[in-house]
Amino acid sequence: MRIVLDTEKCTGHGRCYVIARLLVRDDERGYGAVIGDGKVPPELTELARKAVLSCPERAITVVE
Asked: Taking the model in full, what pTM does it have?
């Protein structure tokens, strides 16, 4: 499983990196940025799904 963030859709609400700090960070402008290659360890699967649901722009997706 990987988490993917569409930077074109992201408007910088910051909910993703507040909820899933282990998977998403904020960039220098306050927009979301996936940490590393976006691979989600099994123990963080639920956290990744919460980040997806938190985004009002639906800029975050999970790829199985």
From this structure: 0.89
